[in-house]
Amino acid sequence: MGSFAKAERLLARLQALGQVGALPGGGVCRLALTKEDGAGRDLVCSWMRAAGLNVVVDGIGNIFGTRAGTQPGPSVMIGSHIDTVATGGIYDGNLGVLAGLEVVEALNDARIATLSPITVAAFTNEEGARFAPDMLGSLVHVGGLDLGHALDTVSIDGARLGDELTAIGYAGTAPLGAIKAAAYLEYHIEQGPVLEAEAIDIGVVEGVQGISWTEVTLSGRSSHAGATPMRLRQDAGLAAARISAGVAEIVRALGGDMVGTVGSMKLSPGLVNVIAEKAVMTIDLRHPDEATLKVAEAKLADLIASVAAAEKVTAATRVLARFEPVGFDHALVGRVEASAKALGLSTRRLHSGAGHDAQMLARTCPAAMVFVPSVDGLSHNVRELTQPRDIANGLDVLATLALDLAGRANTAMAGQPHTNIKES
Ligand code: HGY
Ligand code: MN
Ligand code: MN
């Protein structure tokens, strides 16, 4: 059955963009605002312009490519991100931006005009791996983070966000929030095991779980690994290890959907025969329920305090990101489900384990997401893979729904755009 959009061009573009920042053994590294990210942006903008889109860049580097409708007004926005983690795959984020571009190109090829404009968006620094928090660009876009504050963010490698943005040529001049969205769609890989395990074609995403990122700095005293008796040590490395193990215990005790990750831990001086004087570690806690996430955070604070006292080190914490759970617009979620079913695809409702720009856009307009299966549930891994058939399925749902929301202009049924999704 399918839709007016075809996956071949999208699959080719995913591979082509995946060559920008490609890692030797496969996968990609395009950390936000690096020169590789800049090159990826240049390539995507060149495709947008070749498709006739009006491309604008705002002050935080968000890219918006708009295909005009026959009527002025807010866009149907299709977005995601093209920055990646350091050991990323070619699908996370990139699929959503390039699929939006494919929808536009397919409309051009089919000579279909829409009543409402369609805007393809690539948001800055969705990953948050280099600059925290994640979803930073879309958060600024919706007014959730002051631009000046965002531009002064310092990366894990000591760079200032605004300087890096200027260095890659994406410190834009378009006013923040200038492109209004009547509805926001994000097409994304699931990044988890559910759809594959249940052999489901399309994930109908009802919302995104809460996210809590904390950086902990533990300060002890370096001394000789051999000559210092255990009772005299102030070992920041041991404290960090005990906190890491304690996070796993907190998560296990809360059970259910609770997840916790110590993704980075740096010891200094980091030498085999020197007791670590300093440890800097990050803790990522997530849960779909805000109250439970708060309980986990309180337990973490107690854990840090008790380990620091026991190991005679000092602990300083810094919140890197904190977003409450978000529910997507019920009517639009229903439209995703109905579009998939009308295409003969199997569906399942689920919450997203990962954060997405859609959770920020949901603050300003109805937002919803389309998920497709991840092979082995893998993502943030160079082996990230989604099968071409699944990519085509998700594209068909996205294209069908985007056209439905934007409204066809050049047919006898021309009328009001369906972007006021409450009516339908
Ligand atoms: O961390 C996340 O959930 C997303 O990949 N930024
Ligand atoms: Mn993503
Ligand atoms: Mn990601």
Can you describe what's shown?
By secondary structure, this protein is of the alpha/beta class. It has 2 domains: 7-209 and 325-406, Aminopeptidase, CATH 3.40.630.10; 213-322, 2-Layer Sandwich (Alpha-Beta Plaits). 33% of the residues lie in helices and 21% in strands. The protein has 12 helices and 13 strands. The chain has helices spanning 7-18, 35-50, 94-109, 136-141, 147-151, 161-167, 194-197, 236-254, 290-310, 330-342, 358-361, 388-406, and strands at residues 54-57, 63-67, 75-80, 118-122, 181-189, 202-208, 210-219, 259-268, 278-287, 314-323, 326-327, 347-352, 367-372. Strands 1, 2, 3, 4, 5, 6, 11, 12 and 13 form a 9-stranded mixed sheet that branches. Strands 8-9-7-10 form a 4-stranded antiparallel sheet, with helices on one face. β1 (54-57) and β2 (63-67) form a beta hairpin. The longest helix has 21 residues, at 290-310. Mean pLDDT is 96; it is low at 420-424. Bound molecules: (2S)-amino(hydroxy)ethanoic acid and manganese (II) ion (2 copies). One manganese (II) ion is lined by residues 85, 92, 127, 354, 380.
Keywords summarizing the entry:
single chain; about 425 residues; alpha/beta; Aminopeptidase; Alpha-Beta Plaits; 2 domains; nine-stranded mixed β-sheet; four-stranded antiparallel β-sheet; 12 helices; about 35% helix; elongated; binds (2S)-amino(hydroxy)ethanoic acid; binds manganese (II) ion
Q: What's the short story on this structure?
A:
It is built from twelve helices and 13 strands. It is α/β, with parallel strands linked by helices. Helix 3 (94-109) links the parallel strand 3 and strand 4.
